[in-house]
Every structure is written in C-alpha cells, then in structure tokens.
Amino acid sequence: MVRGIEVADQIVNAPRDARRQPDRAHRHEGARGRAEALEREAKLRVADPAAARQAVERLGARLVRARHFEDNLLLDDAARTLAGRGCALRLRRADGRAVLTYKGPRLETDDRVKVRPEIESRGG
C-alpha cells in the first residue's frame, strides 16, 4: 500500500537550515494566541514508510514528540461556500487543547508546494 506522509516542523526537529520556512518561522502573534502565516505544504507518496522515516533521520531529523490522537472537524455551510472558494475552516482538538484554523485559497506558485494563507486561534 502506498501511503502519504507529511513531515511537520512541530513533530520533526531537523537541522535549522533544513527546516527553515521564512514565512512560517516569523508568525505574527496577535491577541489570545492568534497566529497568521503562509502555510507551505508538500505531501509525498512513498511505497515504504519505514524507508522514508530512515531517510529523514539520515538528514539529521529526530522525533521530538510521540504520536498523538487528533480530532479534526471541518466546518462549512450547506452550500459548501468555503470549499468552493478553495478555503477551509478546521477545528482541531488534541492533548486537551483546541485550535481553530482558517486556510485561505491556494496561492499561485511555480513549484509543487501548496502555499496558502493560514490564520490560527488557540484555545485551551
């Protein structure tokens, strides 16, 4: 079975140059934990998740937090107005915390990385 993996900077601690994301690294923190950023996302298909994990480790990455359960709820109206605009509103619950995230429409880029504005508000 081919699986998709996403390596997130919250989970993997790679050497500083390898994990630098200029727009995300300098989030603008607002009132009550709100953060605005440009999300950069690349999803890779791999035939062997163990081999992919080993390749990332060879680059110097290490696990800094164990896997955990997340409950994700996507919110939209009956007409799917947000989805129709290429946007999303997600409530994620994990580890006794909640994060409400607005994901704006995808920005045009010349590469295969998905880039879109993201606004998060954290609750506890």
Mind explaining what this structure looks like?
The structure is a single chain. The protein has 124 residues and is α+β, with helices and mostly antiparallel strands. The protein has one domain (3-123). It contains 4 helices and 8 strands, in the order βααβββαβαβββ. It has helices at residues 16-19, 22-25, 49-58, 81-84, and strands at residues 3-5, 28-29, 35-41, 44-46, 71-75, 88-94, 97-103, 114-123. The strands form 2 sheets. The chain has a 6-stranded antiparallel β-sheet with strand order 2-3-8-7-6-5, with no helix packed on it. Strands 1-4 form a two-stranded antiparallel ribbon. β6 (88-94) and β7 (97-103) form a beta hairpin. The longest helix is centred in the middle third of the chain and has 10 residues, at 49-58. The chain is globular. Mean pLDDT is 77; it is low at 1-31.
Briefly, what is this?
By secondary structure, the protein is an alpha+beta fold.
Spatial gap, N to C terminus: 37 Å
Largest sheet: 6 strands, antiparallel
Report the order of strands and helices. Answer: EHHEEEHEHEEE
Residue-averaged pLDDT: 77
Topology:
Layout: E1 3-5, H1 16-19, H2 22-25, E2 28-29, E3 35-41, E4 44-46, H3 49-58, E5 71-75, H4 81-84, E6 88-94, E7 97-103, E8 114-123
Antiparallel strand pairs: 1-4, 2-3, 3-8, 5-6, 6-7, 7-8
Observed structural traits:
124 residues; alpha+beta; 6-stranded antiparallel beta sheet; two-stranded antiparallel ribbon; 8 strands; 18% helix; 35% strand; globular; disordered N terminus
